[in-house]
Amino acid sequence: MLSDGMKYLETRLMFGMVPGLDSTRMICDALGNPERKFKSIHVVGTNGKGSTSFYLAGILQAHGLKAGLYTSPHLVSLRERIRVDDEPISEADLDRLLLQVKQAAESVSSAQVALGKPALEPTFFEVLTVAAFLYYAEKGVDVAVLEAGMGGRLDSTAVAGGGMAVVTGIGLEHTEVLGPTESAILREKMGVLGVPGEASGVVGDGAGKAFVLGGLGPDLLEEAREYATALGASIVVPEVRTEVKLPNLGRHYVENASLSLKAAELFLNAPDRAGKRYDDALSVKALATRSWAGRMQLLTGPDGNVRVILDGAHNSHAVRRLVQTLDEYYPGQKFHCLFGALKDKDLHE
Length: 349
Known about the structure:
Layout: H1 4-11, H2 22-30, E1 39-44, H3 49-62, E2 67-70, E3 82-84, E4 87-88, H4 91-114, H5 124-139, E5 143-147, E6 164-167, H6 175-178, H7 182-190, E7 210-213, H8 218-231, E8 234-236, H9 251-268, H10 280-287, E9 297-300, E10 306-310, H11 316-329
Parallel strand pairs: 1-5, 1-6, 2-5, 6-7, 7-8
Antiparallel strand pairs: 2-3, 3-4, 9-10
Helix pairs in contact: 1-4, 2-4, 2-5, 3-9, 3-10, 4-5, 7-8
């Protein structure tokens, strides 16, 4: 039986995905701006956001920080999306915070209607994002690693106004919202830290902000440099740390881990950080046992043999990396494959 909070959240599904920050900002304002009570690191990109976020949160935890982690979608329980030090939010806390967001949203909506403006109808993702902000503020996290749901510039996670964005790579996705080209999508995702020449509210300008970039070809990398320069932000392009060992198989996970290592280093060694400085050996050790569930995850039988490989590949770019990984680790072997994807994906490719 659904709790009252979950019932409210399900009523938000009918509003789909609506890019924009106004609803999230108004609700956060009504709740006393919980998103300003902790530091945030944004993770954007076409593929690899979840694993990069998971690896980064683990590295920060290994350094003694209390780390929030916000990811989507979930595998088994919605509670997986909101974690502190790897522990998912409890059912009771989730229900309580969802109802708190509901009350704030309804209060803002009533005020809007009284002014002759449209009623406020936040989306599923907006409600959950604000609930995550409340939870991280309550728990007193030092930093929250926030995976964007879609894009970046108009993704509700951008309201947190973090000082760093990790860009995991760019491919064609959600083109009806993010734009028809990789160049347009890149700008949308980098917009999580602000837009050159625009006042961006809570996000602010790019002074003192940084992008950690991975998976970009020469042309896109040059565009990224131009965007960052116009914003006043810095850029770091880390080398792939091929010596890093992970439970998740595949070079793409090593690439994501490399981004996480560099992001952690920049965050921990920032001038305003008074705590423990970045320790590379500690970070690499933390990654060695950090398995991102459902992504090149091996499930074995009682005899220890591999029975099933789970992976989240759901677009052509990700499936290509999956095939490359299978060829590398299981050369010449054929697999039975059970595959599912939404109808907006290029299934023929």
